Amino acid sequence: MAEGQEQEDKTEEPSERRLEKAFERGEVPRSADLSAFVSVLSAGATAFATAAFVAGPVRDDLAAILANAAGASVVSAGAAGLRSAAMATAGPLLAGMAGAVCAGLAMHRIVLTSEPLMPKLERISPAAGWKRLVGAENVVQFGKTALKVLVIIAVLAALWRADGWRLGATGLLTDVNGLAEAMRALSGRVFWSVLAVFAVFAVLDAAYQRFAWRKRLRMSHQEVKEEHKESEGSPEIKQRVRNLQRQRARQRMMAAVPKASVIIANPTHFAVALRYEKGMAAPVCLAKGVDDLALRIRALAAEHRIPVVENPPLARALHATVKIDEEIPEQHYKAVAEVIGHVMRLARQRR
């Protein structure tokens, strides 16, 4: 009852990730009816198509065996019989196996996994076995098989009522060729009629198996949330990662401040550390900060004797537009050039 309630709670369609995991486990939709139908269809069609080519050699082998039955050895007779059987059945058997493979590929893509071969405790558990035996899936399969048998019996009865009486006609009993032709015609009608029944059940079973497979993989709202967290990452972890990234970036930025040529700041709020050397296309921003971080940049500048130029409008503009380790925007070239020129003149005067 608890398992049924749990299945009722799973109302969400399976995600692509859940379907992919099912494929990795070897849990794929399978239709025994579709495989049987395509296999029998392939084998039967191949048998009918190759009958004209195979019939002659097989008839010659059988005739040789019967003609030399008295003098032929068991080995030679057996070899001829096996050759005839192989010629008659090799093509249909190979076609049937290829048809079964194609039916499987129609239900799902190629899956290479060893997980279904791994031993599992539930497979040898009597309780689990009994649950599978009386489960809804087996009830459906039993009902489908019973219905299939009844339909096939009804089709065979209708065919016999329509044409089967001819086999007992007096003329056919004395005419071997006529009897063989009548049996061949009736067997052909039986084969294709039964195959048509199999086709209907195969299509219905393939659709049902795919529906049941997706239903088994349905997810509850909680499972959807957990999968989303696993794929996207929980907000707490993502925030922690962002904090660590900002902390490390800030440490690298502060370590670059001693290499700056000038600090452009206003009295307390903004500070931007720029580096410029001869040959550079434009000054590069090494660090920038607001409030406490700006004060720390200015403290490092004072510690390493880096000139600080107070220019509030320029400091605010640079802080808003320039990125770390990038050149300053072109619109600030003139203002920054004046500041750096002033710093260089002061440095020359001190020297």
CATH topology type of the largest domain: name from scop
Arithmetic mean pLDDT: 76
Structural class: mainly alpha
> Strand portion, in percent?
5-15%
Task: Identify the overall geometry.
Answer: elongated
Number of strands: 4
Alpha carbon gap, first and last residue? 91 Å
Q: State the helicity in percent bands.
A: over 70%
Radius of gyration computed on alpha carbons: 42 Å
- Count the domains: 3
The largest sheet is: 4 strands, mixed
Q: Write down the secondary-structure element order.
A: HHHHHHHHHHHEEEHEHH
CATH superfamily of the largest domain: secretion proteins EscU
Proper CATH architecture of the largest domain: 3-Layer(aba) Sandwich
As laid out across the biggest beta sheet, the strand order is 3-2-1-4
pLDDT below 50 for ≥5 consecutive residues: which ranges? none
Secondary structure elements and pairings:
Layout: H1 2-9, H2 16-24, H3 32-67, H4 74-107, H5 121-124, H6 126-133, H7 136-163, H8 170-174, H9 176-216, H10 221-232, H11 235-256, E1 262-265, E2 270-275, E3 284-290, H12 292-303, E4 308-310, H13 312-321, H14 333-350
Parallel strand pairs: 1-4
Antiparallel strand pairs: 1-2, 2-3
Helix pairs in contact: 3-4, 3-9, 7-9
